[in-house]
Write a structure and sequence with these properties.
Layout (H helix, E strand, L loop, with lengths): L1 E6 L3 H12 L3 E6 L2 H8 L6 E4 L8 H11 L4 E5 L4 H10 L3 E4 L4 H21 L7 E4 L4 E4 L2 E2 L4 H12 L4 E2 L1 H6 L6 H6 L1 H13 L9 E4 L3 E4 L2
Parallel strand pairs: 1-2, 1-3, 3-4, 4-5
Antiparallel strand pairs: 6-7, 7-8, 9-11, 10-11
Helix pairs in contact: 3-4, 6-9
């Protein structure tokens, strides 16, 4: 599922867009207050941001600047401002697209997927630097210090998700939601914990001294390298 943070003080518009995008497997969390949104970005993982420019307490261009400075995440500006200067400024700051209001929600959905396709492809092309673990999604391989790690399909799916969201806490629910293999049977039987333990034995230098794959009690798992 694609997860999006929307920063929009027009709650009626936000509700319409949230409901429309949901049918395309796009989950939108709207923040009316920009400061609340910036705080949420520090603890939650989102794939893209939809940002209005006219916001309470903080101008949207300043929000855009703050996001670009601290986060590597694509931004679509959604604004009723017609001034070309705002559009040019936002794009120069690092916004990926500018969609003037009013617009058809279908256009927003297409732009979201187009930008994410380009963004994810660009990231996949970048050579990871000084990384112990490297994920190659095309080959379905994960290496540690250049050496191939032999994993089952379920182990690969879980570890690849953790690597892609490195540094963030991933809940059990997130793992199941983003899995094509795991299902509720795994959850009820405790097999996810078994898979995590098997992964630890394969990636940790000492499975009793966790260095990379950490359990965050009551929250989920976090991968750090």
């Amino acid at each position: 599922m694609i997860k999006i943070a929307m920063i929009e003080d027009d709650l009626e518009l936000a509700s319409v867009l949230c409901q429309y995008l949901k049918q395309f497997n796009i989950e939108v969390t709207n923040y009316e207050e920009p400061y609340l949104a910036l705080s949420a970005l520090k603890v939650n993982k989102y794939d893209l941001i939809i940002l209005d420019l006219t916001l309470p307490g903080m101008d949207g261009l300043d929000v855009c600047k703050a996001i670009v400075k601290d986060f590597d995440i694509p931004i679509i500006i959604s604004s009723a401002r017609s001034d070309i200067t705002d559009k040019v400024t936002a794009l120069k700051m690092g916004a990926d697209d500018y969609l003037p209001k009013p617009y058809d929600p279908r256009e927003l959905e297409v732009r979201i997927k187009t930008i994410l396709r380009r963004f994810n492809h660009s990231n996949a092309q970048e050579e990871p630097k000084n990384k112990t673990f490297v994920l190659d999604e095309k080959k379905k391989e994960i290496t540690k210090n250049g050496k191939y790690i032999k994993l089952t399909a379920a182990e690969f799916e879980v570890l690849s998700l953790l690597i892609k969201r490195e540094g963030f806490v991933i809940s059990r629910e997130d793992i199941f939601e983003n899995s094509d293999i795991l299902n509720q049977d795994y959850e009820s039987s405790g097999s996810l914990a078994v898979i995590i333990n098997r992964i630890r034995h394969k990636i940790e230098d000492d499975s009793k001294e966790t260095q990379y794959l950490h359990t965050i009690r009551g929250m989920g798992y976090k991968f750090i390298q």
